[in-house]
Each structure stands twice: as C-alpha cells, then as structure tokens.
Specification:
The protein has helices at residues 2-31, 38-50, 52-63, 67-93, 99-120, 127-147, 163-195, 199-211, 213-224, 228-253, 260-281, 289-308, and strands at 124-125, 256-257. The protein has 309 residues and is mostly helical. The chain has a two-stranded antiparallel sheet. The mean pLDDT is 82.
Length: 309
C-alpha cells in the first residue's frame, strides 16, 4: 500500500512541477513588456511562480489540519533553495557573481525565519501569525526593491502572445498546481502514518526537495542564458517566499496547530545555515565549485542538526 502512496505522491509532484513551469512561462509573458529590473522580477514574479507547489501545499495542508506539513515543507524548502539548489548551480553551469545580489534578500530571509520560530513556539499558527508572515513578505520585498544593485540584464525572452491568452493559460496552470499539490499532500499524510515518521520531518527532508525542483530547473536555464540577475533573484526570492508567504498563507486562511519543538528546531537550523551562506557569498568574488560544495555540505549538515539536537 505504501508503494501506491509513493506513486500518488510522485504523480502529484510531477503535475505540480509541470504546471508551475507553465504558470511561470505565461506569467513572465505578461510582465515582459515592463521596465522592472530582472532581479526584482526574479525575486517577485518568478519566485512566487516557482514556489507555487509550496504555496498550494501550505493552503491545502492547513485546511486539512496538518500544520506540520506546511511548516516542514516551507522551512525545508527555504533551506534547500539557499544551500542545495544554490550550491549545485556553479557545478552545473560554472562560476558566477552573487555578492551584490544576495545580501539584503538573504538577511531578511534569516530575520523572517526567526520571526516564524517565535510565532510557532506556542504550538499554534493563528490568523494573526499568518498576517505577520504575509506582512513580512511585503516589507522584505519592498526593502529588496529599495536596495537592489544597479545591474541591468535582459529578461528571459518569451513568445509574444495576447495578454488574454497568457492570463487564461496562467490561471489554468495555477489550478493544476493546486490539484497536484492536493494529491501529494494526501499521499504524504498516508506515508507518514505508514512509516511512523513525523509529518514535519518527512516534509522537511523529502517534500522540500520535490517542491524545490522548479527553482533548480529555472535557475539553471536562466544561468545558461547568462541571465544572472533573474537566476539569483529567483532562487533567493523563493527562499524568502518560503520563509514568509508560503508558511503564512495557510494559517492566514485556516489557523492550525504545529509541533512546536520541531518547528522551532527546524526554523533555527535553517536560519543559522542561511546566515552562514549569506556571510560566505558576500565575501567571495565569485560563487564557484568551492563555495558550491560548501553550500551542499551545509545542507547535508542540516540532517544531523535537525534529527539529533
């Protein structure tokens, strides 16, 4: 029976990932005529687009009363994107500069993880807690807008089509993202029951990798096209979205209980690890294979840090 649930989980993630790519594609077409800097488009539009699986999971798991699935996946994805995904990039596409791009967005991500830890420490994520996290996303995004570096690179080219076509296609893809996430969440709940592992742990280490695949796919594509602002904006913006919007939107709509001890431990592990990433990458000229391996090592170290501490 457990194999059936793993199959359902894979189908759900596959549908969600494929649909999120289409949603991002058509959303980018709507924004391609603007004069917004590529880094900001990466931090906002593309970060939300590639984060749709986590956002859908937050809403669905909170509605079902499984807050640990929301927090585990969101915090785990925050960590995965800032370490594993960012660490793999120079190994896959070669070295690139990140120093000017990572400071502000990385700092506000760490700050909001700490806020999330405080909010979850009582074992409840209320509608007010969700509002605080959503407000943190708005404030952090505005700070990023205010302090972005003066770098201008072209936005990824997209086919020119009518706005109505792109709008309908994007909404349809969003619906499919939600359907895929609903199936994956249902499967995760059943798997956690079968293997007797806490929902938080299995979502932190397993679901987070699955829901972070859109970021990896998108950023590799962008870097291969020499669109560094867009790539770094997406991967760091997605990490920030996970620490704020993704965690907060579920309890904002459906207040839910969480396992306080696991939420606090996971949030602190992610916050400390990402703080190290920010310090390292703001002090090197380029993000290359050496810093890439360091970031992957930091991700690997999160396993014993979460499970044994």
């Amino acid at each position: 029976m457990i194999l059936l649930w793993f199959g359902a989980m894979a189908v759900g993630f596959g549908l969600s990932l494929a649909a999120s790519r289409r949603a991002v594609h058509h959303g980018s077409a709507l924004a391609s005529s603007t004069n917004i800097p590529p880094f900001i488009i990466g931090v906002t539009l593309f970060a939300i687009g590639t984060d749709l699986p986590e956002i859908a999971n937050s809403i669905i798991s909170s509605a079902a009363g499984h807050g640990d699935l929301n927090v585990g996946d969101s915090v785990g994805s925050t960590l995965v994107q800032a370490t594993l995904v960012l660490g793999l990039l120079p190994l896959l596409v070669g070295p690139f500069r990140v120093k000017q791009r990572i400071g502000v967005i990385g700092t506000v991500t760490v700050a909001m993880l700490v806020v999330g830890v405080l909010l979850a420490s009582d074992g409840q994520l209320t509608r007010l807690d969700g509002t605080v996290l959503l407000g943190g996303w708005v404030v952090g995004t505005l700070l990023t807008w205010r302090y972005i570096p003066a770098i201008a690179e072209p936005v990824m080219p997209v086919p020119a089509r009518r706005r109505s076509h792109n709008a309908v296609a994007a909404l349809t893809a969003l619906g499919l993202v939600g359907a895929g996430a609903a199936l994956a969440v249902a499967a995760f709940i059943e798997i956690a029951k079968e293997v007797e592992i806490s929902e938080y742990v299995i979502s932190f280490f397993v679901a987070s990798i699955g829901t972070s695949l859109p970021e990896l796919i998108f950023t590799v594509t962008a870097l291969r096209r020499s669109e560094r602002d867009l790539a770094v904006g997406d991967v760091m913006g997605s990490s920030f979205v996970d620490a704020t919007l993704s965690i907060g939107i579920g309890p904002f709509l459906f207040p839910t209980a969480v396992t306080a001890s696991q939420a606090v431990r996971g949030g602190l592990v992610a916050a400390v690890t990402i703080a190290i990433v920010v310090v390292v990458l703001t002090r090197v000229a380029k993000h290359d294979w050496r810093t890439g391996l360091l970031l992957i090592g930091l991700y690997a170290a999160s396993y014993p840090a979460l499970l044994l501490l």
